[in-house]
Amino acid sequence: MIRLRLQVVGWRRRSLVLTDTPRPDCADCRGDGWIASYYGDADGEYADTEWDPCTCWNENRRAVLLPLPRRPRWLRRRTTDGRDSWAPAGYSNEPPF
Question: How many domains would you assign to the chain?
């Protein structure tokens, strides 16, 4: 059984994609889709976590439904510091606050 969801991806061009999701009642991953493997260093201390994909889903199974249109250039304006270019000092003082 395939459990589908819609997802927006930003490959070469943003697209709406239909993708598979992990099985929510999976006993191995409990619906997360990943299984954690903890391992330690030579002293037995925690070193890192390795995440292995579960067999209940295929993360590469997806189909592009619709390429999304590009935003016009005037809507793509951004400042280098991440502030809103339309508002003074990065926030608006106009109601509603």
Answer: 2
